[in-house]
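# nightly structure sweep
# worker-07 picked up a monomer target from the shared queue
# config: single-sequence mode, recycle default, output format = structure tokens
# input follows
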Amino acid sequence: MGHQSPSSRRRRSQPPSVQKLEARDLPTAPTFYGLLPRPTVHVSQTAAHDLTPRGQAKFAFVGLFKGTFTTGPALFQDQAAQTFIRGAGTASAALHANIQAALYTPREPNAPTTGLLGLFDKTVSNSSSQVFLTLTSDPTSLDRTGRPTRFTWSAENGSGGFGGATGEGTMEIRYSPRRNMLKGATRAGTVSIILKGQIVTDNGVSNLLTISP
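# output follows
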């Protein structure tokens, strides 16, 4: 064996090291997109009722969500209670989405519960996509504790992939109560929500990343 110099032995005795990699952000929509003008597009005054079979297939909307609900005292005199819902799930127009909803129970026993639901797309390329659904309950569809389980909804105020959104459909809720709840709450638990209907958009022309035939 040949003679090894002291410097060679020192190099071999040094432990392996790990070099730090440079940080890279996830891809997002073009930064200049927010500077572009947003035109108002009117697809049809009766878009949800006047679709061809191809249009019905394109704009069919289904969403499945699970989350939590909390019911507390009302803030207005014509309301008996208010319920807030937060959840996550998937939809035909959004692979990963979050929802937030507020339901307002009226004091009038025969009046419907009303509310608003916001759906927010969590996909990186569609992070600005959102749509809001106005909710009205069926007063005859109640669970054993009197909570509404079936709603109709109409879509409005969409943006991104939901630009120019109009539509309508139904929402079903299943409640699972729990004993532990926040201070001041009267009821709490988990919910399962099913959304079905049609949401007609402006064919994606207001979102550079969702243009499709």
